[in-house]
Amino acid sequence: MQFCGKGYFVLLAALSIPATTFASTFANGDFELPGANTFFLSGSADTGVTGWTYNWNGTGFESYSHDADYGITADSGSYFITFGHNGTTGGSLSQTFDTISGHTYAVNYQLILQQVGAQLTQSVGLQAFNAVDSSSLGTVQTDFDFLTWSPGVTLLFTASSTSSTITFTDLTDVANSGPLNWDLDTVTVSDVVSPVTSGTPEPGSLFMLGGALIALTARYRHSRS
Questions:
Q1: Cβ atoms < 10 Å from Cβ of 143
Q2: CA-CA distances (angstroms) from residue 119 to 7, 58, 75, 144, 153?
Q3: Which of 26, 126, 177, 204 could hold 19 in an S-S bridge, CB 3.0 to 4.6 Å?
Q4: How confident is the model at residue 115 (pLDDT cuts 50, 70, 90)?
Q5: What are the tens digits of pLDDT across the range 193-224?
Q6: What are the backbone dihedrals phi and psi of residue 187, each rounded to the nearest 5 degrees, phi first?
Q7: What is the pLDDT of residues 3-61, one digit of tens each?
Q8: Which residues contact 71 (CB under 8 A, 6 or more apart)?
Q9: What is the DSSP pairing of strand 79-83 with strand 62-66?
């Protein structure tokens, strides 16, 4: 079957259109919203921090904090989250966001210890959950820097659905939670592996290719009649 020049360019144009299957941008990882004065998070399903859900898990007591609070300057922007006030532990902060099944994501973040005193072991857990899978991948970071922001352990996870959740949890022992608190800032989620690079077309690309071939076939038959 021979195609005319115009039909050839129609096919090329259809193949050049990118498939619209990308996930939405991860929101408010630097905690700049709502941008209010310092306030405390408590109870369950607290959504005071834009895009995030806080749960005290029975004992947690955390703070949405601004530069100069507790002698700490934010790592990114002007706001951060402080965990473990008043000797508490167990509080968690979660966000659910769009993912592409089969893609691998990297979660990075910054941690710091605050308050005056000897450096005691603080511990933060990070887990990733998928909507269709109740199990999780997780990592634990301990003994991070006092008064200096430092990177937490990167969590890599592969999405198994179009929706995933990451959860930060204060795992510090009660004995160590009183003298010191720890802070969280600059959370990022990056898509680091995309199946489109393997040579297998995305469903959107296949749909557009099929439509182009149908249109060219109809044009060819019309020219023969």
A1: 11
A2: 70, 26, 20, 9, 19
A3: 204
A4: confident
A5: 765 544 445 444 444 545 555 655 555 455 55
A6: -85, 130
A7: 344 433 333 333 333 333 444 788 999 999 999 899 999 899 999 999 999 999 999 99
A8: 114, 147
A9: antiparallel
Structure tokens at 155: 């969590």
Which segments of the chain does DSSP mark as H helices, in order? 5-16, 174-177, 203-224
CB 91 within 8 A of CB 62: yes
Q: Which residues contact 120 (CB under 8 A, 6 or more apart)?
A: 176, 179, 180
Tokens of 221: 């038959």
User: 98 phi and psi, to 5 degrees?
Assistant: -70, 140
Q: Which residues pair with 124 in a beta bridge?
A: 141, 170
Q: Pull the structure tokens for residue 42.
A: 């408590």
Residue 149's nearest CA partner among 214, 39, 68, 74 is 74
- Measured in residues, the chain has a length of 225
Cβ atoms 48, 57 nearer than 8 A: no
Torsion of CA 37, 30, 124, 118, to 10 degrees: -60
